[in-house]
Design goal:
With 226 residues, the chain is an alpha/beta fold. The chain folds into 2 domains: 141 residues, 3-Layer(aba) Sandwich (Rossmann fold), CATH 3.40.50; 70 residues. Strands 3-2-1-4-5 form a 5-stranded parallel β-sheet, sandwiched between helices. Helix 9 links the parallel strand 4 and strand 5. Helix 1 packs across helix 5 and helix 6 packs parallel to helix 10. The two termini are 13 Å apart.
Length: 226
């Protein structure tokens, strides 16, 4: 299977997590990415960035955003967009608008919670068997209030967010930090992006790459109960 968990059988996804009771667990913790995994937030991020960047003459294409921006730090994304604009625009002209982008994002999450009920149930179930962490390049103020409103903050022993580590994904720092805080040695990372998978693999951890936020509950249950 290597570093990435194998494709999962559909029938396994229906087995209840309670079957883990009394079993020797293969992993000692589960480390979840946030955007696109725990929460279907990437379209929200995209919409906020489009609104913020439009006055600077930057048209952000959804296909480009999916391939080049997901899992990458916001600062690196803005640096690239500023440099590739024709003509280029100084990074320092755009970056002050980042605070407005964050505020837009928080407001929209309050208006439309991004969590699927199946994912929320999964997290509640798993918290009885595993140490859990959220590991994201997004800032804590973008993540913690939303998981508190969703009622799952107590399920996570720790969060590693944004600038809380020297280097963001695809560097291994975020996942190494989460593992150190949890005191775990063999976690399973749940990711959806190239940068996130690279980060987890660089940390030496096994990765389950989910196909979409909507498939997280099914694919994670199946991986744990194989």
């Amino acid at each position: 299977m290597g570093r990435c968990a194998a494709r999962l059988r559909r029938d396994d996804a229906q087995r209840p997590v309670s079957q883990l009771s009394g079993q020797r667990l293969r992993w000692d913790a589960l480390l979840f990415d946030f955007d696109g995994v725990l929460a279907d937030t990437e379209p929200v991020h995209y919409g906020c960035w489009c609104e913020v960047l439009k006055p600077f003459g930057i048209q952000l294409d959804w296909g480009f955003y999916q391939k080049q921006c997901i899992g990458v730090s916001d600062r690196l994304m803005v640096e690239r967009l500023a440099a590739e604009r024709i003509p280029p625009i100084p990074f320092d002209e755009i970056w002050p608008e980042y605070l407005r982008k964050q505020e837009l994002f928080r407001m929209r999450l309050e208006q439309t919670p991004p969590f699927l009920s199946d994912t929320l149930l999964l997290i509640h179930d798993l918290s009885s068997y595993y140490k859990l962490a959220v590991v994201s390049s997004s800032g804590r103020l973008e993540i913690e209030p939303s998981i508190e409103r969703a009622g799952i903050r107590p399920c996570f022993q720790t969060l590693v967010c944004g600038k809380e580590v020297p280097n963001l994904k695809p560097a291994p720092d975020p996942y190494l930090r989460a593992a150190a805080l949890l005191g775990c040695r063999q976690p399973l990372v749940i990711e959806d992006s190239d940068a996130g998978v690279a980060s987890a693999e660089a940390a030496g951890f096994e990765v389950l790459r989910v196909s979409s936020a909507g498939a997280v509950a099914r694919e994670v249950r199946a991986a744990l109960l194989r």
